[in-house]
Amino acid sequence: MLDDGLDLPDVEDIGTPAWASFGDLMAGVLGAFVLVLGAALVSQLDLAERLDAEQRQRQAEVARREALERALSGPLADGRITLKDGRIGISGSVLFATGSDQLHPDGRALLHTLARPLATYLAQRDEVLMVSGFTDDLGVAKRGPFRFEDNWELSAQRALTVVRTLMQEGLPPDAVFAAAFGPQQPVASNDTAAGRAQNRRVELSPTPRPAAARPSAASAASAP
C-alpha cells in the first residue's frame, strides 16, 4: 500500500533536462552547418569571380594581339617582322651591319613603316613601347669604326638608335624607351651561325604605361 505522504517527482519532469540538452546540441550542429555552408558559398563565389576575371583577361589579351596584328599587317605579310606573344621581332641584319649601331637604309625604311601604326596603337591603349636590343655571345671588336666595350653596350646602342629613329618618325618621347639584354635570353643556339643570326635582334614590346606616369584626374583638371 502506497504512502500517501511520499513526495514522488512529476513524470513529465523526468525527461526535461535530457530533451533540453538534445535541443541545444541540435541547435549547435545546425549553426555549424550554416557557417560551413556559408563559407562554402563564399568560397564558390570567390572562385567564380576569379575564373571570370581570368577569362576576361584572356579575352583582352586575344583582342590585344589581334589589334596589333591588324596594325602591322603589311610588314607581317612580307616577313620583315615577326609577332609572337605580343613582341615584334626584327632581325638584327635587317637593321644593322655586323658590329654596328648605324641603321641600314632598309632598316630605317622599315621603322618608318612601323612608326605610325605603333603610335596609333599605343595612344588608343595608353601603353608604352619597350625597345630591347639582343646580341649573340661572340665578343665584339674593339677596333675599327665600331668600338663597343662588350655586347651589352652594343645592344644598348642599337636599342637607343631604334628609339631615337621612332621618335623622329613621330612616336612621343614618353611612349618609348630602350632596354639592353646583350647575349642574354637567346632564342636559338649560339653554336651555329644560323642560331647566332636569330639571336642578333631587336624586339618591340607594347607594355602597360606605369601607373605613376598616368596623370591623375586632379592634375588633369588643374592643367591649363
From TrEMBL:
Keywords: Membrane, Transmembrane, Transmembrane helix
Transmembrane helix found in the keyword field: yes
Record field: transmembrane: 25-48
Keyword DNA-binding: no
Residue ranges annotated for the OmpA-like domain, each copy included: 83-210
InterPro entries recorded: Bact_OuterMem_StrucFunc, OmpA-like, OmpA-like_sf
Region Disordered, annotated ranges: 187-224
SUPFAM superfamilies cross-referenced by the UniProt entry: OmpA-like
UniProt cross-references to CDD domains, sorted A to Z: OmpA_C-like
Signal peptide positions (record): none
PROSITE patterns xref list: OMPA_2
Biased composition (Low complexity): 210-224
Organism domain of life: Bacteria
PANTHER family per record: LIPOPROTEIN YIAD-RELATED, STATOR ELEMENT OF FLAGELLAR MOTOR COMPLEX
Name of this protein: OmpA family protein
Gene source species: Roseateles paludis
